[in-house]
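Posted in: Protein Modeling Q&A

I'm a second-year student putting together a small comparison for a lab meeting, and my supervisor asked me to include a predicted structure for Cytochrome P450. I've never done this before, so apologies if this is the wrong subforum. The sequence is pasted below exactly as I got it from our records. If anyone can share the structure token output, I'd also love a short note on what stands out.
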Amino acid sequence: MIDLQSIGYLLAGIGGTYLVFSFLREQIDTYKLRHIPTIGPKGLLSSYFGRFQFVKRAKDMLQEGYERYPGGLFKIRTLDQWIVIVTNDNMIHDIRKAPENMMSFDFATRESFQQDHTMGKTVYLHPHHVDVVRTTLTRNIAARFSDVQDEIASAFGDEIPPDAEWKPYPALNTVMRIICRTTNRLFVGLPVCRDPDYINLNIEHTILVFKSAFLINIFPSALHQIIGPLLSPLPASLKRARKHLAKMIEDRMEKDDQYGRDWDDRPNDFISWVLDEIPQEKQKELRNVEDILLRVLHTNIGAIHTTSMAFTNILYHLAIQSPEILDILRNEMESAIDQYGWTKDAMSHMRRTDSFMKEVARMVGTNGTVVERMAMKDFTFSDGTTLPAGSRVAVPGFVLQRDENRYQDADKFKPFRFYDMDRDAAGLTEDAESTWTGSIKHQMTTPSPNYFFFGTGKHACPGRFFAVNELKTLVAHTLLHYDIKLEGDPKSVPAPVWLIRDISPDANIRVMFRKRQRLKE
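Accepted answer (user: helix_wrangler)
Welcome! Here is the predicted structure, written out as tokens:
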């Protein structure tokens, strides 16, 4: 019989062997990238143990690299591996146009979010729900807009009841609940989208996915298959989701089998769209309750996280604006709604609102690095620099979007920066503004070499058109029904919180709301 001491020696031996193997592999990876300049520790031992520097100093390290190697590239040691940061526009274009089998978005995302364990393999092996978001959801924005606007009004009424007196609300938590309800009005409809447990499920699952991925990535990759299942939020989340949606999905599939896809009163929602998009040859494998639940949970992660971060940051900026800026925005909103009603067309005519939102995204964003890819083969940039297969590469979105060479007064918040850029490019006079519909070049949905909030190329966020329309509706509802300010009435925007390269609005900040004193009837 093996005693505890022997087991201890065995485990210590295994652990020691692994540490040696991990260290040697680290040195091999470092050697392969020796031609790339390093930010942070670069010695044999210091770089191995210096990986934790990036957890607390990501912003400073990215800024240092951007300034020391302008128009070039550099590498930083993260928790799990080296990441090569690209700042040159031509190199960024090389990444954008590279095929998936050369520079893979899917593999980079799979590793960053530990998708095998946090989201389920099926969502990236068979990503037809992404096509649903990119095409079907986008095509249905106008048709379902009244439902979105109705849910926003209802959610605000429940979460922030209009009151003549100023009242404080925890901004990020309140926003997440409103956006979860709004998004799921399209995904699963009434009454489920308003169920408190369903709302909590999606918010908690979103948070747990990011936490679990972070914790798994702390461990060496060889241990992920052991640690991943232990930290996975999926089993518990699926169990809760099944209580809310299983019968709905089963009934939907049963009616589809009986009547086809055009039966009367078939809901025009995400569940129907996903069922319609399942490839014919995969019907037996993927047409089941659990697979649909995984896709609902997965799509909620992106919808809740990005939109909640963006709207909270927008609120923080709105709360410190002068009455003159708020009047300009409100007048634009009232004019568009008077002419087009609460519709998608009205949102498209809120060009200054779009500019305000895009400027917030430029100033803050949600990630210090964007456009992350994994080199699937040795990859040579147009300048001749070669990265070995397995290299992770990214663009320093946060510091790039604050570059004085890209934006005049880049560190200054200019609410109508992009509106003015669009107007100037069109050679517009003030008299012509009222009939001007604008171009898409400087709109929030349009990626560019200087703006990466929604990514770039074919992997640009598939839900960005819905997200921007939702954000505009949220902003319009806020300004037309409430006065807002930050608690304590400071005149500067609260500093965002960095965790490694993720950027979040400070969750401790409270925003004061009261019923708008000059609400237009």
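A couple of things worth pointing out for your meeting: The CA atoms of residues 355 and 416 lie 5 Å apart. The first helix runs from residue 4 to 32.
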